[in-house]
Amino acid sequence: MVTPRRFLSDKLCPVRAKRERRKEARPGELIAAALDLFVEKGFAATRAEEVAARAGVSKGTLFLYFKNKEELFKAVVTENLSGRFTEWNKEFEVFEGSTSDMLRYCMRVWWERVGSTKASGLTKLLMSEGSNFPTLAEFYRQEVVRPGHALVRRILHRGIDSGEFAPVDVDHAIYAVIAPMMFLMLWQHSTPMCIDGQAVLDPETFIAVQTEIVLRGLSARPSA
Questions:
Q1: 3-class SS at 219?
Q2: Per-domain residue ranges of the chain
Q3: How much is the average pLDDT of 185-200?
Q4: How is 146-190 classified by DSSP, letter by letter?
Q5: What is the DSSP secondary structure assignment for residue 144, as one 8-state letter?
Q6: What is the CB neighbour count within 10 angstroms for residue 117?
Q7: Which of 114, 115, 170, 176 pairs with 185 at a CA distance of 20 to 30 A?
Q8: Which of 60, 70, 3, 1 lies closest to 26 in space, CA to CA?
Q9: Which of 109, 93, 122, 97 is nearest to 182 (CA)?
């Protein structure tokens, strides 16, 4: 049996092998560190040297992988948000349930994969700082907002075409679906001023209730 050359090299020089594996992991480590700091401090207040320090590398090392802070932010958005839409669209291509079940699935999985994670703070960041960084705001619109709207539009058209949903203005109905998600993201990353201090808001229950409210409004009914 021939031992792979890379394996022999790793055995003969474990320090070099470890260094190479560390080098391969650095972009992911820098993206993770940047996500933490962008959500904690905002884009403008986050410095490149802070990201590098949190990732355990030098500032110079960060710029070997990302030419500036803007490119690092785009990588954070791509890794944590925009990359999800390809995954969801593939799932919907083979989805065999009703459109109501598809919408329930979409909103529940959104919470599991995005809403409940730190990445949900990126939306609040863009809402508060986007006007100061128009290039990043447009990138976010292209990579997150428009694909997100297209995904919801696809679900709504599926329901209308099958007769499950009443004909509606889809371009406006999209926001009825998105609004509960936006509320949860802002609630998670802001002082919860709009929540009764005595109340307990369970995000999963909130999403489930809001989904049923939307579905009742969309439901096709016999004409009066």
A1: strand
A2: 1-67, 73-224
A3: 71
A4: HHHHHHHHHHHHHHHHHTSB----HHHHHHHHHHHHHHHHHHHTS
A5: I
A6: 16
A7: 170
A8: 60
A9: 122
Query: Residue 103: what pLDDT?
Result: 95
Q: Is the pLDDT confidence value at 224 over 50? A: no
Q: How many CA atoms lie within 13 A of 34 on its CB side?
A: 31
Q: What is the pLDDT of residue 221?
A: 72
The structure's pTM equals: 0.82
In angstroms, the CA 143 to CA 129 distance is: 17
Per residue in 103-159, pLDDT (tens digit) is 999 999 999 999 999 999 999 999 999 999 999 999 999 999 999 999 999 999 999
What dotted CATH number matches 1-67? 1.10.10.60
HEC profile of 13-80: CHHHHHHHHHHHHHHHHHHHHHHHHHHHHCCCCCCHHHHHHHHCCCHHHHHHHCCCHHHHHHHHHHHH
CA distance 185 to 126: 12
Q: What pLDDT was estimated at residue 40?
A: 94
CATH fold for the domain made of 73-224: Tetracycline Repressor; domain 2 (1.10.357)
Provide the β-strand partners of residue 165.
219
